[in-house]
Amino acid sequence: CELIYVGDCGSAGRPSMRGSPFQFRLEAIVVEMQDSKSGVKCSEQKLNISTIPHVITGVDVLTWITNKMKTTPEEVQAFGTMLVAYGYIYPLQNHKKLVMCNNTSLYRFQTPYFWPTQNWVAEDSDYAIYLAKRNIRKKGMLEPYEQTHYSHLHDWMNHKWDFIVMQATEQYKAGKERKKPDRVVFDCQERAYWIVNRPPVSNMFYQQAIMRSKVKSSVSLGALAKYVTTYKNHDPFLAPCLPSNPWQTDNDTYWTCNTRRVDVPTKMRVERWSFSLFELLSDLRGRDDFKTFLKKEFSGENLAFWEAAEELKWGTGSSMTSKAETIFKTFLAPGAPRWINIDGRTMGLTVKGLEHPHRYVLEAAQTHVFLLMKKDTFFRYLKSPVYKDIQKKAINPDPHNFSPAQLEQNAQSRSLGIHPIILWQQEEEEKAKAAAASAPVDVKAMMSKIDRNK
């Protein structure tokens, strides 16, 4: 929020300020919480050997916020934690834990002198004086993070360290003249202010990162080098397109040779199928060739199930229930015509999930089937006559060498391509024909029909 300074100055030469309406509203709530009649219940509590006045508990604060704001427990907890994190309320016991706990943990309201809207800058010299004063009081027994800051500030402000120690000594002597309860309260308020403005550095995520298992850099670099070596000839930025790059020459022969279901693919395209099963299935022409191989081996149910799962994942929401029912009857039900062989645990989770189908209900079974094809069927396909035959038939277009005049002519004779919706409609029609052609044969129905004809 934007802070606007006013002309006058507050106590100790610190500028007062006017904050945003949100800050005024927040501080009005804090003031209301301290009302003696309608505010949070407070009492005296004995802490160590000192009696601390106006102590509140976390559960009382959260109860008051709930009654005031009429909101959810989660929002109440978040609002209470925000008051602690910004220094309006501070904990008395675990002062480094800036969280509002819903129990009998003890808290106090921070004095308005230390509220964020006072906007007095938490300078390093002030923090150095505070640490020097604590060092005198604790006789050198600072907490580890405070000791680290103390050493750093001592090295950085060595030129005026005598002045800092003198200021700290004077403040320590002035504090000794106060009554003990007042002295303890002020020490708690000051410590709470610096906990907010100079919080301890947490290395929790750093420790988690160290403990996490990591791949050696040599292995990662080796995998990256292998990937680049494999795909470099298929990257238009690293190798020229054959016959030519349509974006540079305005000639669409490259796109024509690489349409989705072209009869004779290019050698580069067929070579890419051998990189991985994912590359093979991502190319519709490669998937058709893979289907031909599976059909000859009478083992096409795994790929059919994988395609059905993709249809469910990317299809329309209105047809989700009917597709899930069809998939169950075709692939998963006992005695299904195209039953797939997956482990019992995955089958149980999938069948249970189909009772309330969603897009990713078949994710586990689809992954299992994909891994089965990847480990076995894919490598048999690469060694099969089907793949070797398509390798022989594949074409390798000659590169185009257009002259400047021909390039200008290509640019002038450019025509619009096929609209994506038309391509999608054609693909849906082909899918429907393929589904009808590969529909499972009901042997019982066929036998009964033969018996009736007799």
Structure report:
By secondary structure, this protein is an alpha+beta fold. It folds into 3 domains: 115 residues, Arc Repressor Mutant, subunit A (Orthogonal Bundle), CATH 1.10.10.10; 74 residues, Methyltransferase, Methionine Synthase (B12-binding Domains), Chain A, domain 1 (Orthogonal Bundle), CATH 1.10.1240; 213 residues, Regulator of G-protein Signalling 4, domain 2 (Orthogonal Bundle). 58% of the residues lie in helices and 7% in strands. Strands 3-4-6-5 form a 4-stranded antiparallel β-sheet. A two-stranded antiparallel ribbon has the order 1-2. Helix 2 packs across helix 3, helix 15 crosses helix 18 and helix 17 crosses helix 18. It is elongated, with a radius of gyration of 37 Å.
Q: In percent terms, what proportion of residues is strand?
A: 5-15%
**Morphology:** elongated
Name the helicity range: 55-70%
**Overall structural domain count:** 3
Largest sheet: 4 strands, antiparallel
The CATH topology of the largest domain comes to Regulator of G-protein Signalling 4, domain 2
Which key features would you list for this structure?
single chain; 454 residues; alpha+beta; Arc Repressor Mutant, subunit A; Methyltransferase, Methionine Synthase (B12-binding Domains), Chain A, domain 1; Regulator of G-protein Signalling 4, domain 2; 4-stranded antiparallel β-sheet; two-stranded antiparallel ribbon; disordered N terminus
What's the structural blueprint in terms of helices and strands?
Elements: E1 4-9, E2 15-18, H1 21-33, E3 43-47, E4 50-57, H2 58-69, H3 73-85, E5 89-91, E6 106-109, H4 124-137, H5 144-156, H6 161-176, H7 180-197, H8 204-211, H9 217-231, H10 246-249, H11 253-257, H12 267-273, H13 277-282, H14 284-297, H15 301-314, H16 320-332, H17 344-353, H18 363-382, H19 385-393, H20 404-412, H21 420-437, H22 443-453
Antiparallel strand pairs: 1-2, 3-4, 4-6, 5-6
